[in-house]
Design a protein that fits this description.
Number of strands: 0
Helix content: over 70%
Length: 298
């Protein structure tokens, strides 16, 4: 995933760049809620994911083919494997869990434990050992996430395997993130990586969506707005910032920012859909912010 042609900033410059990068990452990462809210009212989750990944991959494909080094078969196959893990199994796993009636709040909470899994995997696979301060920050951040999510946490009537699916999807994303940081023998610019991963996901989501009833998109303004939001912000911005951050900063530091996404998602809901904000959410956000700050500066 690392492109040797890129000149990485000096350590001091990276420290100055981190606050901006972290802010953009959490805003973009949490924005998927908005696009999904618009689009999922018009189509099934799998159909939404198919069009999201297909449009994202196709828009980037001309740039992937003409800008950057020639894509070799080995590198393409590796990115296809990441596409299966990060796009199809991660996004699709959570979507399937929700369809099986695993409560959305619980799904969101489990998905936001990705940084904890990454921190646990980073030490044996990358040699990135978290300090005592960073583990303290991680604990505080998780507590903040629990406070933010408390009102929406319930245990539904979904089958046991569906709950396991949410945990498995979270672990797969964490493993893929660590492996991408570890793999330095195959180099590819971010736009080429995202294009291949999204097109791989589109092929798999398309197969599932076709089995469920067809691939035709709803011709509505709401679906179009949702797709534009999912492609431009939740995919291009979020994935580009995330992958670029992995190249510049320790993986546990980057992933810790995701702890803020539940609270920021609720702010999105308030700003876009007039959903209520409570004092508990702000308390949880403050706790999470302290935990992320400790983890990022440990």
């Amino acid at each position: 995933m690392t492109d040797p042609s890129l000149t990485l900033p000096a350590p001091v410059s990276r420290r100055l760049l981190w606050p901006l990068t972290a802010t953009l990452l959490v805003i973009a990462w949490s924005s998927g809620f908005v696009g999904t809210r618009y689009a999922s009212d018009q189509a099934s989750v799998m159909l939404v994911l198919f069009w999201r990944t297909l449009l994202s991959g196709l828009i980037l494909l001309p740039f992937a083919l003409t800008i950057g080094p020639r894509m070799r078969a080995r590198a393409v196959l590796e990115q296809m494997a990441y596409g299966v893990m990060i796009v199809f199994l991660y996004l699709g796993g959570f979507a399937l869990a929700i369809e099986q009636h695993v409560p959305t709040g619980l799904v969101a909470l489990i998905s936001d434990l990705v940084p904890l899994a990454i921190a646990a995997l980073a030490q044996p696979l990358l040699g990135e050992r978290l300090s005592a301060r960073q583990w303290l920050g991680t604990t505080i951040a998780i507590a903040g996430v629990l406070v933010v999510s408390f009102d929406s946490l319930t245990f539904g009537t979904a089958p046991i395997w569906a709950y396991g699916l949410t945990v498995g999807s979270m672990l797969i994303f964490a493993l893929a993130s660590v492996l991408q940081k570890r793999r330095r023998t195959i180099h590819m610019p971010v736009h080429q990586c995202i294009s291949i991963q999204m097109l791989t996901g589109a092929a798999l989501f398309g197969t599932v969506a076709a089995m469920q009833g067809g691939l035709a998109p709803p011709l509505t303004a709401e679906f179009a707005i949702g797709m534009a939001w999912l492609v431009l912000i939740a995919t291009f911005a979020a994935y580009s910032i995330y992958y670029t951050s992995l190249r510049l900063f320790p993986v546990a530091k980057v992933s810790a920012v995701i702890y803020l996404s539940p609270a920021v998602t609720m702010v999105w809901g308030w700003a876009m859909f007039s959903e209520p904000l409570t004092a508990t959410m702000f308390v949880g956000l403050a706790i999470t912010f302290v935990g992320v700050w400790l983890t990022s500066n440990g």
